[in-house]
Amino acid sequence: MSGKEVKSKSILFVYTGFSSFVKNDYLLLSAVHRVHKYHYSPVRGILKNTLEILRQFFFLLIFGWKYDLFYCWFADYHSFLPVLFARIFRKKSVVVIGGYDVCRIRKLKYGAFCSSFRGWFCAKSMRMASYILTVSAHVDRKAKAIAPFTKRTMVYNCVTLESPDETSTFKTDMILTVGLINNERTFYLKGIDTFIETARLLPGFRFEIVGINQSKLAHKLGNLPLNITLYNKVKPHELPAFYLKAKIYCQLSRSESFGVSIAEAMTFGAFPIVTREGGMPEIVGSVGAVVERDPQSVANVIKERLLRHGVHDENEIKMQIKKHFTQQQRSEAILHLIDAL
Fold first, then answer.
1. CA 109, CA 185: separation in Å to the nearest integer?
2. pTM over 0.85, yes/no
3. Which domain covers residue 104, as residue numbers?
4. pLDDT (tens digit per residue) in 133-172
């Protein structure tokens, strides 16, 4: 931020899940502004959602006038009333578009626009908002198609983990993937099937999957190759130990608006291999490999990196993150936007 004094604003921070990237925005806003959290509980079913919307309606009706700005993470049911009340009270609203809210993969029933009813709430939220924040150029293009007349800007998600300066001494010939994989849909969405088949083609290398619910997905894990190790969901502070060991990080998703885990692994010097989906190629840039989601293609790149190239330039990979995806960069961009509204 510049030396100009920033006026503190009263912000209603609306969210459904307090994930690491949502928490990061809350903290950066709270450092300068007066921020009140509002948790909209994500529920299934029209009746339960109606009750949650009614609860939000009366909260906004009674207290909405107090806020200078409404900041919503994701466009969905929970963002519609805040941006509507912002207009009624002549206040400003910002909706952060994270990817699910502009996505539709009918085969996996993934994305808000798989339902025309839910998609209406998303589209209306984006079109009525004062400003749209998108997390990648890929998401930005989709948001523009849905709400072409709403002002918007692209601000990349960021990495909050810190790695030691020297990481090469910790590296092993291990290939890693990380995700919240707790049902069959996320199993395929994150490309875990492709990752497993890639491991089957490379029995001499070690593969690890972190974040998979082994009990819920037991029916998908019955014939695993012996060179794969599975870990259930771990706490955020436990992830660096995995990133530090991995020479290669794979994200073979069928859809990925950004890919925080990719950027985190790169922070620790892991060579990234990603599919040509969503915002992943933007993160990797020229320092990793973008491949077709095909086990043999992925296996060929892994062999090329580990057998022929040996140790890759970890500093070059780390620099890609430091140039584009730091917490400071996101903080400065968002705080500048809020100040200008």
1. 8
2. yes
3. 10-158+326-340
4. 999 999 999 999 999 999 999 999 999 998 888 887 888 9
